[in-house]
TrEMBL record:
<keyword id="KW-0862">Zinc</keyword>
<feature type="domain" description="MYND-type">
    <location>
        <begin position="338"/>
        <end position="380"/>
    </location>
</feature>
<dbReference type="InterPro" id="IPR057136">
    <property type="entry name" value="At2g35280_TPR_dom"/>
</dbReference>
<keyword id="KW-0479">Metal-binding</keyword>
<dbReference type="Pfam" id="PF23310">
    <property type="entry name" value="TPR_27"/>
</dbReference>
<dbReference type="Pfam" id="PF01753">
    <property type="entry name" value="zf-MYND"/>
</dbReference>
<dbReference type="InterPro" id="IPR036047">
    <property type="entry name" value="F-box-like_dom_sf"/>
</dbReference>
<dbReference type="InterPro" id="IPR011990">
    <property type="entry name" value="TPR-like_helical_dom_sf"/>
</dbReference>
<protein>
    <recommendedName>
        <fullName>MYND-type domain-containing protein</fullName>
    </recommendedName>
</protein>
<dbReference type="Pfam" id="PF08238">
    <property type="entry name" value="Sel1"/>
</dbReference>
<dbReference type="GO" id="GO:0008270">
    <property type="term" value="F:zinc ion binding"/>
</dbReference>
<dbReference type="InterPro" id="IPR002893">
    <property type="entry name" value="Znf_MYND"/>
</dbReference>
<keyword id="KW-0863">Zinc-finger</keyword>
<dbReference type="InterPro" id="IPR044508">
    <property type="entry name" value="At5g50450/At1g67340-like"/>
</dbReference>
<dbReference type="InterPro" id="IPR006597">
    <property type="entry name" value="Sel1-like"/>
</dbReference>
Length: 406
């Protein structure tokens, strides 16, 4: 029995070793799985804690930041790390302070991202008037497309400039008038006044298309917004009873107010060092013809008290002057004689002319008054009329046509 027991005991040793070895392997496997699962669990828990912390601090930074790309010189381009909203805000500020179209376009040529974001409607709607002041010599399809994009974005200056260009230069009357109307709806005073001039003259149509009442209403709206030429035009309409009931006293008040605003504009924009000392001296102008005033007479400030500088024309009027400077108009068509206007006739004898010399013609009484003060008062002399010439001109009135006195 002892021998048998001894034999069985020795045979049982390998079995116990195998059991212990299997138990040891199971323990290592389980501990390894626990380690892996624990590591995964710990990493998930740590990532969850990071996301929760980021959301609690700033919800917009919950997404993982992009690594700044490395440039050729080895430095990081931090512009690519900025969100699009920040870049749009910066471009809007740059566009609203640009001094010329080239300043804004040069920013778009910097990189592809600025080129894409620079034509966003938020940026184009806030560009300055100088940014959309395209010159006639630089006019092209790309310039036309740029103004169209700005007008579609809601920029009122672009709507007005493109409307004037299409109406007078490109002879697209309907589209140009609608763009100016779009700017006028947004209380753009020059657009309101330009539409008033179109209504007074019946521009783009026939003589029967004139609407004097609509022109006076548009002038009144522009004058309420402080437009100087509209104030002057409304004053002449009230004095002459042109499209409105005649009121000479109220008309003279508007004329004085227009010149007072003109003075205030000069004082606010012209440095004191550039104003001569004798600009406030009493200097009556030679408005007398044969001992009598050429008009009803009104002691306006710019004529009798102040020699104000010539106002700078608007970008749209400057474009018209440059556009038609080297282009021939149609047969019998003429430009407005005011150098700062540039409007052309859309049909023969559309504009009114000076009733004294008959050598100049104007699209409005405001242009006539401005040109009289600057230039025409020195050269206006009574000229011999050709028989039948007055009958051909639809805008020479029986009472002497246009007054040459502003």
């Amino acid at each position: 029995m002892k021998e048998l027991y001894r034999v069985n005991y020795t045979r049982a040793i390998p079995w116990q070793q195998r059991r212990r070895r299997n138990l040891r392997r199971r323990t290592e496997t389980v501990s390894g799985c626990d380690g892996i699962c624990g590591g995964v669990h710990r990493s998930l828990e740590q990532e969850h804690r990071t996301v929760v912390t980021g959301v609690a601090g700033n919800r917009s930074t919950s997404r993982r930041r992009r690594t700044p790309p490395v440039t050729v010189s080895g430095q990081c381009d931090f512009l690519d790390t900025l969100p699009d909203d920040v870049v749009l805000y910066i471009l809007s500020k740059l566009g609203s302070t640009a001094e010329s179209p080239g300043d804004f376009i040069s920013v778009l040529f910097t990189c592809k991202r600025l080129n894409v974001l620079g034509v966003h409607s938020l940026v184009l709607s806030k560009v300055s008037s100088k940014t959309v002041a395209v010159k006639a010599k630089n006019w092209s399809e790309s310039a036309h497309r740029f103004l169209k994009q700005c007008s579609d974005a809601g920029n009122v200056e672009a709507c007005y400039n493109l409307g004037m260009i299409r109406f007078y230069c490109l002879q697209n009357r309907g589209s140009g008038a609608s763009l100016m109307a779009k700017a006028a709806i947004n209380s753009h005073a020059p657009a309101l006044y330009s539409l008033a001039v179109i209504q007074f003259n019946g521009s783009g149509g026939s003589k029967t298309d004139k609407d004097l009442r609509a022109g006076v209403a548009l002038c009144a709206r522009a004058a309420f917004l402080g437009h100087i030429d509209a104030l002057r035009e409304l004053g002449h309409c009230l004095q002459d009873g042109y499209g409105v009931r005649q009121n000479i006293t109220e008309g003279r008040r508007f004329l004085v107010q227009a010149n007072a605003r003109e003075l205030a504009t000069v004082l606010s924009t012209t440095p004191s060092a550039l104003i001569s000392r004798n600009w406030m001296t009493w200097n009556p102008l030679p408005n007398l013809h044969n001992g009598n005033l050429a008009g009803p007479g009104c002691p306006l400030l710019s004529d009798f008290g102040c020699n104000v500088p010539v106002p700078e024309p608007l970008p749209s009027n400057r474009f018209l002057s440059e556009w038609f400077a080297d282009k021939a108009l149609g047969s019998g068509l003429r430009l407005c004689s005011n150098a700062g206007c540039g409007r052309p006739e859309t049909r023969q004898h559309e504009f009114r002319r000076c009733s004294v010399c008959g050598g100049v013609n104007y699209c409005s009484r405001a242009c006539q008054a401005s040109d009289w003060k600057i230039r025409h008062k020195m050269v206006c002399t009574r000229a011999e009329r050709v028989v039948g010439d007055d009958e051909d001109n639809e805008n020479v009135d029986e009472d002497g046509g246009m007054f040459v006195e502003s």
